[in-house]
Amino acid sequence: MLKNFIFLIFLSYSFGIYSQQLDYSSNTLLDGLNQPWGMDLISENKILITEKVGNLKLLDLSSGEVQDIKGLPKIHFRNQGGLSEIKVSPNFKEDKIIFFSYTSLNLADGTNTLAVSSASLNGENLENVKEIFRAKANRRTGAHYGAKIIFLRDGTLLISSGDGFDHREKAQFLDNHFGKLIRINKDGSVPDDNPFVNVDGSLEDIFSYGHRNPQGLIQLNDGTIIEHEHGPFGGDEINIIRPGKNYGWPAITYGRDYSGAIISPFTEMDGMEQPVKYWVPSIAPSGMIYYTGDAFPEWKNSLMISSLKAKKVSKISFNNRISSSEDNLFQELNHRFRNILQHPNGNIFLLTDGPRGKLIEISPLKNLEIVTPDGITAFFLRNPESLQVPAKPYDISADADVLLKNALDSLDKNKKLLLILGGNWCPDCRVLAGMLKSQNVKKVIEKNYVVQHIDVGRFDKNLHIPKKFGIEKLYGVPTVLVIDQDEDVLNSPFIEDWTTARTKKPEDLTDYLSRWIEG
User: Fold this and answer.
1) What's the pTM value of the predicted model, to 2 decimals?
2) What's the whole-number average pLDDT of the chain?
3) Contacts of 358 (CB under 8 A, 6+ apart)
């Protein structure tokens, strides 16, 4: 799997998956989510996550603790409908207010529609819950709600409302909320400068129209509003949003109906905006960010669009204008991606879709990096030629029993023994010894581990040492044992019927060393 980096250690506590492009790693922070949809940070260490089925969760990124937030209004979960977007007030530290979108049932006639509410977050409870928007888009279907929310730079809210699937023609009319972007104040009132204020027959909160199912919505620092929306069978779009403009659906489209039938023979029409990019076939875009972080400098000034059908994140350069090229990221993870978020540290958070959804963190791999929950799981080396490989790291004349005793005596409840059985004849053992002597690695290891190398010759010396820990036979070297203060082995050091694979040179360890430990 790793082709450009050297995979040097993979111990038993690893939760990481590493990309084929090998400039990032992925770590699952939370799994078992039931239809996750939206997420937003309330601080650098805490994130709110919605589940479409009607749950709101608060995850502590430091401890892993998950709290269920109580006090939500009644959520109508059906097909694509349910609890959707979550947005934290820009002044959350002071006002503790959050905003969320959801599907709400109309009790009078059994129809349902999109609603948005605000609430104060007090510990595990929502207080002062107030519905601030209810779409005039009643339907009996459970599809195409849009449901995205962003704060614009002027403090107003922009909300997307889909065409309801069966009501697409209504997207061209201004007396309803099907296929619209809606702009309101935080209290639900309508801003005076909305484009259809005082326009007869129009809803004054409409900002733009002619949309299908808008699911990506951002505003750049220069004020540019960018939206993406699902097309039908082909025709997913990215649009630059301007107030009062008509984006054409369903009068113009680059897609066809799911049956293959033509929805419209036109892709252009006077008075209707053109997308800046469209996809045929569809990728089913979901979330979107404009990447500004320092963790991945090569991704700066790019749109990053998560997708469901295509199971990828599309990276598209956008610096005043959109690039015609597109990079596909995270395909090796093989997930339908529901949403994407940038952490203040520049890392990327991804939500996966479905009844066993996950929250995944994407972080960079530096020249030398330890990727681990406890301080030592996987070591990567971008430039293997920079590693100084010692010729004879194993003291062949040392008393192995004394080495082991001294190492075990130095353990405490916070430190484990990293016991490495190998020999100077083994190039892989020498490379490992060189890595463990690296100052960068030692800083991490010394917090949690005591390292001891013991020479086992060519499987003919000191074999009583592994037997002390129930290891009757060495299948290859280096063999790595993680041992605690009670002298219990904490890892499974062998793959059954594992045999030693030779490497052509000490630095070429990808295939060999990735099989050291059965994770």
Assistant:
1) 0.71
2) 86
3) 28, 29, 30, 31, 33, 335, 351, 352
